[in-house]
Amino acid sequence: MFSRLRSDIQCILDRDPAARSTWEVITCYPGLHAIVLHRPAHWCWVHGLKWLGRFISHCARWLTGIEIHPGAVIGERVFFDHAMGVVVGETAEIGDGCTIYQGVTLGGTSLYKGAKRHPTLGKDVVVSAGAKVLGGFLVGDGAKIGSNAVVIKPVPAGATAVGIPARIIPSKSGESADVTLTDRKFTAYGITQEDDPVSQALHGLINSASSQEHQIALLWQAIEKLASNRAATDCVPGDAALREHFEADKLNELVGK
Fold first, then answer.
1. Phi, psi dihedrals of residue 217, rounded to the nearest 5°
2. Strands 99-100 and 160-162
3. CA 73/CA 42 separation, integer angstroms
4. pLDDT tens-digit map of 194-203
5. Angle at 91 between CA 90 and CA 95, to 5 degrees
6. Which of 17, 116, 186, 229 is the Cys-Cys partner for 136 at CB 3.0 to 4.6 Å?
7. Which stretch of DSSP H or E encloses residue 68?
């Protein structure tokens, strides 16, 4: 028990630069308090003491602002960062090393009792502030859920989900190498500018338009060189078509790198 508590405290010190000491984490971090109180609640739940488990969970919610159903399964080194307003459903499962921010809901979309209604988070998943993960599906190891995303379908390992409803951005390597790397860097709030699908689409359109203008200019330059008489030369539209005017770099800067 104490070794697991030390692990929980250490994961907070590793992931939160605002945490200055072990004593501060023990006394001032409601995310840690919610985890510690969930364990006896879960023990009561799985041993048939349903009401007592719910009562401990209710007290933990009142003390911390984090509502975790006693039936939920939570792994080791899970960090509820700030975490006010977090709701974790009965059949939810949270893998080792996950980070969950404030306002997150791990909810269900079914009313059938006993069914798997809530999501399963793999290892090292980051669920950002305000995100809603709804349904009994799997969010793969190392995946990231962007702030305020509404996820209603499985997320592959290493991928990023952003938007409403969430769009899935695959791992950059295509094989979730960012999951298997041992020196993977922690991403606070689970999102970077590189994970914005709209920005990526705009960059692709800008670069494609720039490439097309370059090809057109090369074609006119070739036509001009091949022209052997005055009549053929008249077909060349002038210097304007021979030079490129598309300011791709400026547009990319406006969209954001």
1. -60, -40
2. unpaired
3. 8
4. 556 666 667 6
5. 115
6. 116
7. strand 67-68
SS3 74: strand
| Digit-coded pLDDT (tens) for 233-254 | 555 555 555 566 666 666 666 6
Of 142, 73, 149, nearest in space to 105 by CA: 149
DSSP 62: H
Rounded to the nearest 5°, which phi and psi values hold at 130?
80, 0
Amino acid, single-letter form, for residue 84: M
Q: Are 168 and 214 in contact (CB under 8 A)?
A: no
Provide the pairing of β-strand 87-88 with 105-107. Answer: parallel
Identify the pLDDT of residue 179. 45
Q: In the chain, which residues have pLDDT < 70?
A: 1, 172-201, 203, 227-257
pLDDT at 16: 84
Strand partners, 147: none
How far is Cα 235 from Cα 229, in angstroms, rounded to an integer?
A: 11
